[in-house]
Amino acid sequence: TARESQQTTSSGGPAASAAQQQSAGPGCARSRTGYPQVELEGATVGFSQSEKETNPFRTAETQSIRDEAAKHKVNLLVTNAQSDLNKQISDIKSLLDRGAKLLIVAPLNSDGLQPAFDAAKAKQVPVVTIDRKVTSQPCTDYLTFIGSDFVEQGKRAAQQMIKATGGTGKVAILLGASGNNVTVDRTKGFKDGIAGTPGLTVVAEQTGEFDRSKGQAVMEQLIQSNPDITAVYAENDEMGVGAVTALKAAGKQPGKDVKVVSIDGTRTAVQLIADGGYTAVVESNPRFGPLAFDTLEKFGKGEEIPQNIVISDDEYDTTNAQQKLNNAY
Amino acid sequence: MTLPATKTDTKTATRTAARTRWLQDNGVYVAVVALLLFNAVFTSNFLTLGNFRTQLVQAAPVLIVALGMALVIGTEGVDLSVGAVMALAAAIIPLYLGAGPLLAILMALVAGLTAGAFNGFLVAKVGIQPIVATLALLVGGRGLALVIADGQLVQLHDPAFLALGTDDLLGLPISVLIAALLAIAIAGLTNRTTFGRQLVAIGDNRKAATLAGLPVNRVLVGVYTLCGVLAAISGVLATSRLGASDPADMGLLMELSAITAVVVGGTPLTGGKVRVLGTVFGVILMQLVRATLIKHNLPDSIAQMIQAAIIVAAVYVARERR
Amino acid sequence: MPTETSAGPVIEVAGVTKTFAGVRALDDVDFALKRGEIHALVGENGAGKSTLIKVLTGIHTPDGGRVTRNGQISTIYQEVNLVPLMSVAANLFLGREPRTRFGLIDRTRRDADAAELLRGYGITADVTSPLGTLAVGEQQMVALARAVEADADVVIMDEPTSSLEPREVETLLEVVRKLHQEGITIIYVSHRMDELYRICDTVTVLRDGRNVHSGPLEELPRIELVSLMLGRSVGEIEKHGTTAFGEDHHADTRPVLEARGLTSTPRINGVDVSIRPGEVVGLAGLLGSGRTETAKAIIGALPLDHGTVFVAGKPVPRNVKAATRAGISMLAEDRKTEGIIPNLSVRENIVLAALPRLSRFGVISRSKQDRIVDTFVKRLRIKVSSPEQKVAELSGGNQQKVLLARWLCTEPRILLLDEPTRGIDVGAKAEVQALIDELAREGLAVLLISSELDELLDGADRLVVLRDGEVAGELEGAQLTREHVLKAIAAEVMDDAASHQNRHQNSHQNSR
Amino acid sequence: MITQAAAVRTKVLQRQGAAVALVLVVAVSWLVFPRFGSLDNLRDLALQGSFLAVIALGMTFVIITGGIDLSVGSLYALGGVLAAWGSQYGFLVALALPLLVCGAIGLVNGLLIARTNMAPFIVTLASLLFARGLLLAITDEGATTYQIAPDSAFVELGRGTVFGFGYPIFIAAVLCVLGGLVLNRTTFGQNVFATGGAEQSAILLGVPVAKTKIRVYTVSGTLAGLAGALTAAYLQSGVTVIGVGTELDAIAVVVIGGTLLTGGMGTVVGTVIGVGLIKVIQNVINQIGTLDSNYQSVVSGVFLLVVVVLQRTLRR
Ligand SMILES: Nc1ncnc2c1ncn2[C@@H]1O[C@H](COP(=O)(O)OP(=O)(O)OP(=O)(O)O)[C@@H](O)[C@H]1O
Ligand SMILES: Nc1ncnc2c1ncn2[C@@H]1O[C@H](COP(=O)(O)OP(=O)(O)OP(=O)(O)O)[C@@H](O)[C@H]1O
Ligand SMILES: [Mg+2]
Ligand SMILES: [Mg+2]
């Protein structure tokens, strides 16, 4: 059939190993929290996913947690908050209620999960947050954060952009959803990244809401009013792919006339690079399973856990897209 | 208690009345012209063929949905499920695309028809309020689409199917042509056919229409079914344009865009009246507003507030006077 | 509001003009209401009576002229204007509910007061049930009670008796007299001459939005009043009688309509009606006796527990569409909610039910439509500025004619008329009655429901009398007299109609 | 009399269709899911329900007048942001600011609807957009999330408990009781019913229809703002991503509770029951645990349908 299977086969790409960095501040050991020791094998672990698994990132993320849980023979409980913050709080409370002794949380938002963390604290359950950093206190409210540095991602996208354009050009930014701190960080990182390159100017920044068709529609408008756009920075792959469709329809050659750089590392975008119709993708690594369970295991053993564990993000560009294609999710 | 003598000149009064009435009927056209003029002057590269083409292509799917919505609103109903139906159509396309685009499109339309008929059944036969009846499908329909698609976006490669969204016919993009033809067909349907007049009568006074022996249930089921099919057509076209089946985002909030366009076009939500040309211009107006805001690179916050103001202004002008 | 005790008029209107979208409803009208009088306001349909009232009460602002009010006005509007979903008691006291010590509405007291009050008007319905469950006539009485209890100086009644039964009319007239004795001033709009001459002191005649006569009613002979209203000479009018019905009809074939055992508890119970082609059968009964329900059951608009309707011997499925196809048409009692499609034009309202016949493959033929509409506008003398005028803009009587036209153009075999002359002026009424006659002569089977006894006696060939949703008797030929009918209706002779107490007991018995 | 008893029984069923459904669902959940009945779970259920209940209370008034208020979701989010921002100036500002601003937007809704004869659906749809835009504007396009000091009195409003039941539960309960009294036992309440039952008649009966509508939308806006403020206090921050689609939840809840969307009829009790039903079902879906997230919305849709059809069938 014409249906292209997008099933991610396994979560364990090579990028799953972490380049751990310990940031400022003391680490967190179990002794400091006074939490009881929990033997990982056979334990009940709760995972609260924030959004529906309809985008490749979430699919890969949940799958990674599930795979790793199976490896450690833990009893995994999974909930999905369906983008509803109040539901995520309820979800986490219900996970605790259902006997979860360890928690992995993919927060929907940086703020607002305090009541859930308080509930976990009351039951002395350590919480590992992944992919999005929350504003609560590490070690007291939650154990540690494992994830990418979104600002850094934006900076790396900027570097790719400077490299591809040679430092001159007019850039359109396709922003993520308004009010979302991923959007905020990726915008900040990118702008900081090109700050030292006066040849690159941002001529438009409009939200495509992380959505492919919105990205396409916005790009269609921008290419009409600013026909001299030479580069597009999309804050996720979906919008970037949408922009490619719009550029092609306007008679431009994406990747050549107009450079396209985005963040995520989905199969579709990386394939486009390999095919020569896309410039670069900065990966946002969704494979948190191994790191998350490792961390929980270490914590159980009483080892010191750093406040932030940064997962290593790969990069795809025209030089490596073909051979790294299988790493894309 | 005495009211002072107000011997107004009735002639001027009549003339003012006539002028407000004219504006009330034609406000949306005036607004479109005004916005075009504004852009011609203040927006760079606006007066190009390519730009108009873009606007039309983007407006076409909304228009197709809005046409169905206008009919439903004419019966004093509303269909909140159109976006979900678009998602269903999108989810179904890749399942059958292997057997040829025609079958795939047909199956998508069948899904729209089924969904619409189901809505119609709930509204007409079970007697549930349209908002609630279609809300159920709004909530569940997209979920169903995601279940069908296994929650995945699927890239499409069938060239014949993709041509629907990218190619021209008679110098016009195919989707625009289809939208135009559908608009003409719906205009004929409302004004020239028994079905159309019965629809409006039902919207105006359902009890009286029932007692007049009109086939109320049949018309209602027909209207919702038509709306479902139109939403599915729109879903098919949008999918082909996107080059991917994306049930998670396809048609998101389309119900609100369509309702806004219909109402801004002068069709009252109280039923009993359908303005097809007004709906076409309502869609164009909202499209132009969005385009203008993007082209002037306004931040999302300002853009949303301006859209709100324009909706209120347009509906204010077109409102029925007491 | 303080009432000035000056001897001047309570309400005075000078040079008032009111125009609606091209229609001049009121044209330089002068009008004065003297304290304590009962002032009749008469005129043809669309003469501007309701509009004048709405100007007096401040609902409409006049385009020009002066309105002076020296008192509190309370109005019963032409169409029942209450809230159907709210309870009877809530409607009655809306805006002046009795309070508890804490300032909250005292529902117990409100309901008790309402029941007590309505008993005085012969209504024993449950005051906590939604108003909409009452028959139209009963609702009208509630509206009356509400208006009267409002402690007003002026009570305006726009056709209050048009949906009332003779006994209720008596109650109402008695209320009017009582108010009069209490010094309250009354404006009384009605198309029924008898009532006017029984109670009114003064009369104002409107014609085409102009005041053509104001003066004492007594001095004005009936025939002259009618001539003023119609703008025709006395001689022309003298030719007509009280009703315009002709001779009995020849109806000797088998019934075209047979309804057997119509039952829909608790409203109707085993009603049988049959009508032969060319026959006019009247349905008589008190308010709430189930006449409207019977008609609705026949047309299939009422869910039935039992009973079948046969047309020409064949059973008809129980829905309006099938009944219409079988040739049954019904002119509904409540034209506002069950009749007109307000925002459609007169033309579209007329052709509505006949659309399938006027179209081909679902596409409507405009020329056929225009021809039919033209015919009926002329034949029924519907007063419109153009067939494209919105039907909501017509006066009540003209709306009624539009609805009649709607049914006539479906060329029905059986016509159910529920209060067909309600709210219609004398001229139009005669026309409608003559029309019914003519239709029957052409072979139509007619079921006539009317609260006016004369209309039933003169118009019907046979009367079916309903009581509490059951057939209480059938009257034919020589039995068609006032006495017989009243006896059948109320199961006793109504010589003591004046006594409240009695009537209360009667209706109590009746309802059980 | 048998028929009368039966009639009374049907009447009770008609009125309490949602209540019957709620009792059934709760009973089944209790038996099937051992943790459903745990005190912790019930506390969380009540707390989650209380925010929605406050919004739905305003919506009940609006819908009884025959209107609809689509702006409450945005106002809910806006209220939270304003409260969080205001909390730096103390408890009073944190509480008053969202009430005032959201109330003012509700007032504008009411004025536009009552004075210009524009459809409530479209007016409030516009203010849905407007309030979102305003929210983005004051948060620097969503970049800033205002935090509330964890030890402030305002946080206590959202996080404090009595016997483990959060303050918002009691606030919502008091408001609902008050709302019920206002609706049934005051002139304003009667005017609300009259306005929705037959607007034209209500005008002729001397009901201040325009004023009633203006008040109702103001109340709805204010309550949405209050719900936002309470949520902010509970979350300790003015989260910008909440409230999307909350208006539909509120409408669904009110309708499930038996309030007629055409206006003229409805109860606060019904609305509270509707909130209970929706939250219990959500909770049960969570208890099942293994349900694929895509099926969750299918289940919600089907459930909504079942309740509404059930209710409709009972009413016949
Ligand atoms: N709201 C309106 N819009 C347009 N025309 C109106 C409106 N109300 C009344 N008219 C017109 O004004 C004229 C007078 O109407 P009105 O209702 O006052 O008549 P009426 O004397 O009460 O008649 P009836 O005895 O039939 O009730 C009619 O021609 C009617 O069509
Ligand atoms: N919708 C309803 N629900 C409940 N009871 C009703 C309803 N409509 C009418 N009834 C009751 O049914 C009985 C018959 O009413 P119906 O309208 O048939 O009387 P009628 O003889 O036609 O009186 P009218 O003179 O008003 O035409 C009355 O007791 C009335 O209260
Ligand atoms: Mg009148
Ligand atoms: Mg009747």
List descriptors.
heterotetramer; B: mainly alpha; two-stranded antiparallel sheet; 13 helices; 4 strands; disordered N terminus; D: 316 residues; two-stranded antiparallel ribbon; 14 helices; binds adenosine-5'-triphosphate; binds magnesium ion; transmembrane transporter activity (chain B); ABC_transp_permease (chain B); transmembrane (chain B); cell membrane (chain B); membrane (chain B)
What's the topology here?
The complex is a heterotetramer of chains A (329), B (322), C (512) and D (316).
Chain A: H1 30-33, E1 44-49, H2 56-71, E2 75-80, H3 85-97, E3 102-105, H4 114-122, E4 127-130, E5 144-147, H5 150-165, E6 169-175, H6 181-194, E7 200-207, H7 212-225, E8 231-234, H8 237-249, E9 259-264, H9 267-274, E10 280-283, H10 289-301, E11 308-310, E12 315-317, H11 321-324
Parallel strand pairs in A: 1-2, 1-3, 3-4, 4-5, 5-11, 6-7, 6-8, 8-9, 9-10
Antiparallel strand pairs in A: 10-12
Chain B: H1 10-42, H2 49-74, H3 82-96, H4 101-126, H5 130-148, E1 154-155, H6 159-166, E2 168-169, E3 172-173, H7 174-192, H8 194-204, H9 206-211, H10 216-242, E4 244-245, H11 254-264, H12 276-295, H13 300-318
Antiparallel strand pairs in B: 1-4, 2-3
Helix pairs in contact in B: 1-12, 2-7, 2-10, 2-11, 2-12, 3-4, 3-5, 3-10, 4-5, 4-10, 6-10, 7-8, 8-10, 11-12, 12-13
Chain D: H1 2-15, H2 17-32, H3 39-64, H4 72-86, H5 91-116, H6 120-138, H7 153-159, E1 161-162, E2 165-166, H8 167-185, H9 187-197, H10 199-204, H11 209-235, H12 246-256, H13 268-288, H14 293-315
Antiparallel strand pairs in D: 1-2
Helix pairs in contact in D: 2-13, 3-8, 3-9, 3-11, 3-12, 3-13, 4-5, 4-6, 4-11, 4-12, 5-6, 5-11, 7-11, 8-9, 9-11, 12-13, 13-14
Bound molecules: adenosine-5'-triphosphate (2 copies) and magnesium ion (2 copies).
One magnesium ion is lined by residues 49-50, 78, 158, 395-396 of chain C.
